[in-house]
C-alpha cells in the first residue's frame, strides 16, 4: 500500500498560484466565511466561491467527500449577508434532515427552516432546506415564500438523470426567477461541460468547476482467501493509474490458481458442472472462474486486524445485509469496548424512546440494539427510518465499526469510512443481474477515506466467481459517468404551464430543457452513424448478389415464411390459452378438478372460484390433496382442467386454519376413489405452420425461384440476413433522428391533446391561433403532483372515492402510489370484500386506469403507471387504528417499507385535502392523514 513520493519543492509558478489563492481566500465575504470554517479551502472550492461572490451561477463537479458542499454553504452565507433568502435543496428527505441539522448548528434554529413534504419547521426562515419537489411545487403555486429568494443550492444535481424523479430538477432550473443565483453540486460526471453549457443557456453566466482530485487518496485492493492484495502492480500510482494499468502479478496468479482448483470437479463444493457460471460470471477475463467467497465475519476480522475499520460493506441485497449481521453475531464478532457499548446503549435508548413499547418486538429493536452494541449494523431501505438514522449517527461518531449496506447508502448521506468493501461487481436491477458501472463503482467507493483523519482510503473487492481483475481495473480507473436527462412533460406540468404562459410559450419553455439540448447535440452523431449504415448496406447488397436472379427477392420470401410460421405458432398458443381460460371460468366452490399437466398437476378442490376474469384470466383458489392453498392461473393448467366430482366446502371455511385445510383435503382424497384414471394425453404440439395454405404457397414460390438452385445460396443468405438486420437498425436510427428535432414539444402537444379530450384544457373561444386555457377541473389538477397525477384527477372527478371513509380513502390512494418490489402471485385481500365500499371504489379505480391507458396508447404516450393493490390491507388497518403487529402480520412488508410508503400516501392525501372538488372528500382526506400519521409513521428526527 505504498505511494510514490511527492516532488520536493513547488515551482515558482506553483508558489505564485498558491499565493494568489490565499489572497482570494482571505478577501471579501469569502475571507469572512473562511474564518468560520477553521480550515483552508481547496483550489476548486476557492474558484467556485469567487465566481459566486462576483454574481455568477456555478456548477461544481467533484468526487464524493471532496468538500463541494462548502460552496453551497458559502451561498447561504452570501444570502444572509445580503439580507436575502437561500434555499438548499436535496433529492431525499434523509439528506435534507442531515443538512438542516448542520446549518442549525452553524446559524441557529431561528435562521434555518425545513420543508420535506411531511415535515415543516420554520418555513419562512431566511435559510430553508427542502426536497427538490417542494421547491417545484412552490414555483408552480407562486408561493409567497419565494419573495426575496437570492440563492438556490441544488445538492446532488446529477439526480436529474433519475428516471422517476429526475425531471423535477430540470423544472426547477428552468422556472427559477432570473435573478436567483443557482449553485449546482454534482458527482464527477464525464459531460460536466455539456451540462454547464446548458445551464449557461437557461440561467445565464455559469462557471463550471470540475475537480477529479480526491482529498484522501484511494487504494484499490482485492481480498482473496484471507490475503489482501493491491490491485495494481507495485510501480503504479493508484491515484492516477492511467489507461489499462498493469495488474499485480501476485493477484493474477492467486486468482488463476484458485480458479483451476475450483474447476477440477464435483468433489469440490465450488464445482458448477460443465462450464457452469453464476449470473454475472466473467467471460471477459477468464480468471478466477470459481473463487469461493470469504465468509463475512472473516472479512470483518481481517479489516479489524489490518486497521481498516470503520468500513462500509456493500451487499446488493437487503436480505444479504441482515444475514451478514446475523453471521457476525453468531461468530461472536465484537468490535467495541465496554465504554463504547455503554455509550451506544444510551444513544439507542434515547433515540428510540419515541417508539411505543408494544412495537419494539415487531420492529426487531432488541436484535438491532444487540448488533449495535457490538459495533455491527445493517443499512437499507427496508429499515425503519428511525433505525437507519440511529445507525448513521453511531457510525459518524465512530461507535459502529462496520455497516452492511445496499447501494442506497451512496445517495448523499454523510457516512465516510476508512474502507469500502464490495462483495460483488454484479447487482440485481429488479429484472436481471447487471454489472456495476464505472460511475456506480466511483460513487460507492467514494465513501472511503475520511478527510482530516485518514492518510489513505481503501476500496476492497472480495474475490468471487467471475472476478476479472482487468475489468475491475477498468472500473477503478475510469470516470465514465455521463449525465443523461430523464425530462418529460407531465400532465400536471402541462396544465401549470398553460395556465401561466399559454400553450405556445409553454412549448418554447420546454424546448429549453436539458433533454432537448442533448437531443439536438446528439443528432450530429446519429447522422454520422446513419451515413456509416448506408455505406455498409451498399456493401452487403453487393455481397449477396447472385448470378441466377434477384437474391433480395428470394431472401424476402424466406423472411415471409419465417414470419408466417411464427404467427401461426402464436395463434396456436392463443387458442390453447383461451381453451384453458374457458375451463377455469365455469368452476364453482366444491368442484373437484383434475389439473392434467404443468407444475400444478394433480387433483384439487375449488374453495373460491374468484371474481370474474380480469386481465390475467380466471384465478380460482384451490386446495390440493396435501393441504396446500394455491391460486390457479391460465399458465398453470396447460390446455385446461376437467371437473371429476364435487365435495361440500363448509360456508365458514378459512384457508388460514390448519384444521379446516386438513378436513377438506381428507374429503378431497376420499372423493377420488371413484374417479376414473385420466385419459388426458400430453398436449399435442401446435399444428405445424407448414400446413397453413399461405405458408405452403410461399414455399412453392421459394422452390421455383432461380436463386433456390444457386450452389452459394447459403453464403448469399448470410449476407442478406446481415443486410436485413442492419436495414431494420438503420430505419430505426432514421426515425430517431426525425423524432429528436422538437421531440419534447411533440410529447407536450400529445399531452395537451389528452388533457383537452378529458376536459382539463379547452380551446379559447374565437382564438385563431388555437390557444388553450385551463378548465375548472384542470385548476385542481394543477395541485396534484404525484407520479400518477392524471389518474388521481380522474378518480376525483368521477367521484370514485366519494363514499369512502378515511381508512378506505387511504387504502385506495395506496393503489396509485405503491410499487411492489416483486411480482405477487396471491390476490390481495380487500377489507369489506369485493362488493363493499372499498371494493367497489377499487374496481372504479381500475376502470379509470384502464381507460386512461387506452387513451394514452391512442395518443402514443406511456406515462400511466400500473396500479398495485399490495398495500391496501396494511394501510387500511393502520388508518383504522390497528397496531403495527396486526398491520405487518402475514406479509413480507418490512416496517421500514411500510413507513416509507405510508409517508408517500400521506403526501398524496395532503394534496387531496387541498385539491379535492368538494368539502366532504377534502375532510375525509384530512382525517386519513391523521389516521396514518401516528406511531412509527409520525416519528421525525427533526
Tally of separate helices: 33
Counting helices, strands and paired strands, the structural category is alpha/beta
Biggest sheet, in brief?
Answer: 8 strands, mixed
Helical fraction: 40-55%
What would the average pLDDT be, to the nearest integer? 82
The spatial strand order of the largest sheet comes to 4-3-5-2-6-7-1-8
What does it look like?
The chain is of the alpha/beta class.
Features:
942 residues; alpha/beta; 8-stranded mixed beta sheet; 7-stranded mixed beta sheet; globular; disordered N terminus
Write the layout of secondary structure elements.
Elements: H1 12-26, H2 28-37, H3 43-53, E1 57-61, H4 69-82, E2 85-90, H5 93-107, E3 112-115, E4 120-121, E5 127-131, H6 132-141, E6 149-154, H7 167-175, E7 181-186, H8 192-203, E8 206-210, E9 218-224, E10 227-230, H9 249-262, H10 296-305, E11 311-314, H11 318-330, H12 338-351, H13 360-363, H14 365-373, E12 376-379, H15 385-396, E13 402-405, E14 419-422, E15 426-428, E16 433-435, H16 438-445, E17 457-462, H17 469-477, H18 491-510, H19 514-543, H20 551-585, E18 591-595, E19 602-608, E20 621-624, E21 629-631, E22 642-646, H21 658-671, H22 693-704, H23 713-740, H24 743-758, E23 761-763, E24 772-774, H25 776-781, H26 789-798, H27 806-817, H28 837-858, H29 872-879, H30 884-888, H31 895-915, H32 919-932, H33 935-938
Parallel strand pairs: 1-7, 1-8, 2-5, 2-6, 3-5, 6-7, 9-17, 11-13, 11-14, 12-13, 14-17
Antiparallel strand pairs: 3-4, 9-10, 15-16, 18-19, 18-22, 19-20, 20-21, 23-24
Helix pairs in contact: 3-4, 6-7, 16-17, 18-24, 19-23, 20-22, 26-28, 27-28, 27-29, 27-31, 27-32, 31-32
Amino acid at each position: 500500500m505504498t505511494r510514490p513520493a511527492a516532488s520536493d519543492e513547488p515551482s515558482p509558478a506553483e508558489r505564485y498560484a498558491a499565493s494568489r489563492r490565499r489572497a482570494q481566500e482571505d478577501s471579501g465575504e469569502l475571507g469572512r466565511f473562511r474564518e468560520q470554517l477553521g480550515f483552508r479551502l481547496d483550489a476548486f472550492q476557492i474558484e467556485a466561491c469567487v465566481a459566486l461572490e462576483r454574481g455568477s451561477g456555478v456548477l461544481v463537479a467533484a468526487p464524493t467527500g471532496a468538500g463541494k458542499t462548502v460552496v453551497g454553504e458559502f451561498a447561504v452565507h452570501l444570502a444572509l449577508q445580503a439580507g436575502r433568502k437561500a434555499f438548499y435543496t436535496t433529492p431525499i428527505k434523509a439528506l435534507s434532515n442531515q443538512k438542516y441539522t448542520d446549518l442549525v448548528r452553524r446559524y441557529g434554529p431561528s435562521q434555518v427552516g425545513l420543508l420535506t413534504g411531511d415535515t415543516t419547521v420554520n418555513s419562512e426562515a431566511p435559510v430553508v432546506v427542502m426536497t427538490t419537489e417542494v421547491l417545484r411545487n412552490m414555483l408552480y403555486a407562486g408561493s409567497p415564500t419565494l419573495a426575496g429568494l437570492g440563492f438556490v443550492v441544488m445538492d446532488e444535481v446529477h439526480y436529474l438523470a433519475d428516471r422517476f424523479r429526475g425531471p423535477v430538477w430540470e423544472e426547477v432550473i428552468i422556472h427559477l426567477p432570473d435573478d436567483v443565483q443557482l449553485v449546482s453540486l454534482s458527482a464527477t460526471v464525464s459531460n460536466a461541460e455539456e451540462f454547464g453549457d446548458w445551464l449557461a443557456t437557461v440561467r445565464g453566466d455559469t462557471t463550471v468547476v470540475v475537480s477529479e482530485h480526491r482529498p484522501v487518496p484511494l487504494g484499490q485492493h482485492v481480498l482473496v482467501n484471507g490475503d489482501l492484495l493491491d490491485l495494481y502492480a507495485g510501480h503504479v500510482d493508484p491515484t492516477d493509474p492511467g489507461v489499462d494499468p498493469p495488474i499485480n502479478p501476485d493477484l493474477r496468479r492467486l486468482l488463476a490458481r484458485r480458479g483451476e482448483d475450483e474447476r477440477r470437479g464435483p468433489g469440490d463444493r465450488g464445482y458448477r458442472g460443465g462450464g457452469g457460471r453464476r449470473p454475472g460470471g466473467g467471460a471477459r477475463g477468464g480468471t478466477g472462474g470459481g473463487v469461493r467467497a470469504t465468509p463475512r465475519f472473516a472479512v470483518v476480522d481481517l479489516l479489524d486486524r489490518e486497521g481498516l475499520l470503520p468500513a462500509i460493506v456493500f451487499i446488493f441485497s437487503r436480505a444479504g445485509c441482515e444475514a451478514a449481521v446475523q453471521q457476525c453475531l453468531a461468530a461472536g464478532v465484537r468490535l467495541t469496548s465496554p465504554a463504547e457499548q455503554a455509550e451506544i446503549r444510551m444513544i439507542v435508548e434515547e433515540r428510540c424512546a419515541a417508539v411505543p413499547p408494544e412495537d419494539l418486538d415487531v420492529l426487531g429493536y432488541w436484535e438491532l440494539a444487540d448488533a449495535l452494541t457490538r459495533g455491527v449494523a445493517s443499512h437499507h431501505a427496508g429499515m425503519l427510518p428511525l433505525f437507519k438514522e440511529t445507525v448513521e449517527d453511531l457510525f459518524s461518531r465512530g461507535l459502529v465499526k462496520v455497516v452492511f449496506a445496499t447501494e442506497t447508502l451512496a445517495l448523499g448521506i454523510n457516512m465516510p469510512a476508512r474502507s469500502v468493501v464490495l462483495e460483488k461487481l454484479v447487482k440485481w436491477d429488479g429484472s436481471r443481474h447487471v454489472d456495476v458501472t464505472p460511475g456506480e463503482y466511483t460513487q460507492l467507493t467514494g465513501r472511503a477515506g475520511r478527510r482530516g483523519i485518514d492518510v489513505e482510503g481503501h476500496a476492497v473487492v472480495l474475490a468471487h466467481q467471475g472476478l476479472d481483475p482487468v475489468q475491475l481495473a477498468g472500473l477503478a480507473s475510469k470516470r465514465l459517468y455521463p449525465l443523461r436527462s430523464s425530462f418529460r412533460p407531465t400532465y400536471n406540468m402541462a396544465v401549470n404551464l398553460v395556465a401561466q404562459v399559454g400553450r405556445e410559450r409553454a412549448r418554447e419553455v420546454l424546448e429549453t430543457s436539458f433533454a432537448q439540448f442533448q437531443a439536438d447535440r446528439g443528432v450530429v452523431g446519429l447522422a454520422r452513424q446513419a451515413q456509416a449504415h448506408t455505406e455498409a448496406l451498399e456493401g452487403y447488397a453487393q455481397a449477396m448478389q447472385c448470378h441466377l436472379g434477384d437474391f433480395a427477392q428470394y431472401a424476402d420470401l424466406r423472411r415471409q415464411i419465417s414470419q408466417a410460421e411464427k404467427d401461426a405458432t402464436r395463434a396456436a398458443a392463443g387458442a390453447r390459452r383461451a381453451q384453458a381460460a374457458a375451463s377455469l371460468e365455469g368452476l364453482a366452490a366444491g368442484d373437484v378438478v383434475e389439473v392434467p399437466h404443468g407444475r400444478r398437476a394433480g387433483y384439487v378442490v375449488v374453495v373460491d372460484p374468484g371474481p370474474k376474469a380480469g386481465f390475467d384470466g380466471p384465478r380460482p383458489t384451490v386446495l390440493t390433496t396435501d393441504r396446500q392453498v394455491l391460486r390457479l392461473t391460465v399458465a398453470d393448467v396447460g390446455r385446461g382442467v376437467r371437473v371429476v366430482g364435487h365435495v361440500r366446502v363448509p360456508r365458514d371455511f378459512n384457508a388460514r386454519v390448519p384444521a379446516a385445510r386438513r378436513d377438506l383435503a381428507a374429503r378431497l382424497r376420499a372423493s377420488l376413489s371413484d374417479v376414473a384414471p385420466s385419459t388426458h394425453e400430453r398436449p399435442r404440439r401446435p399444428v405445424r405452420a407448414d400446413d397453413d395454405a399461405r405458408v405452403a404457397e410461399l414455399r412453392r414460390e421459394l422452390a421455383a425461384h432461380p436463386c433456390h438452385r444457386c450452389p452459394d445460396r447459403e453464403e448469399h443468405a448470410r449476407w442478406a440476413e446481415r443486410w436485413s438486420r442492419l436495414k431494420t437498425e438503420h430505419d430505426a436510427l432514421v426515425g430517431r433522428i426525425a423524432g429528436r428535432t422538437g421531440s419534447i414539444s411533440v410529447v407536450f402537444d400529445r399531452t395537451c391533446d389528452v388533457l383537452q379530450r378529458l376536459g382539463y384544457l379547452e380551446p379559447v373561444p374565437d382564438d385563431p391561433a388555437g390557444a388553450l386555457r385551463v378548465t375548472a377541473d384542470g385548476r385542481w389538477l394543477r395541485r396534484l403532483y404525484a407520479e400518477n397525477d392524471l389518474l388521481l384527477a380522474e378518480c376525483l372527478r368521477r367521484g370514485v372515492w366519494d363514499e369512502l371513509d378515511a381508512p378506505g380513502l387511504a387504502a385506495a390512494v395506496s393503489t396509485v402510489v405503491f410499487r411492489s418490489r416483486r411480482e405477487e402471485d396471491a390476490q390481495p385481500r380487500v377489507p369489506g370484500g369485493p362488493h363493499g365500499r372499498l371494493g367497489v371504489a377499487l374496481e372504479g379505480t381500475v376502470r379509470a386506469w384502464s381507460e386512461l391507458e387506452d387513451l394514452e396508447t391512442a395518443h402514443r404516450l406511456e406515462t400511466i403507471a400500473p396500479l398495485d393493490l399490495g398495500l391496501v390491507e396494511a394501510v387500511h388497518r393502520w388508518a383504522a387504528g390497528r397496531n403495527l403487529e396486526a398491520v405487518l402480520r402475514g406479509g413480507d412488508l418490512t416496517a421500514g417499507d411500510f413507513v416509507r410508503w405510508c409517508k408517500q400516501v400521506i403526501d398524496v392525501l395532503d394534496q387531496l385535502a387541498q385539491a379535492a372538488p368538494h368539502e366532504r372528500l377534502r375532510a375525509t382526506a384530512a382525517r386519513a392523514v391523521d389516521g396514518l400519521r401516528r406511531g412509527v409513521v409520525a416519528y421525525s428526527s427533526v
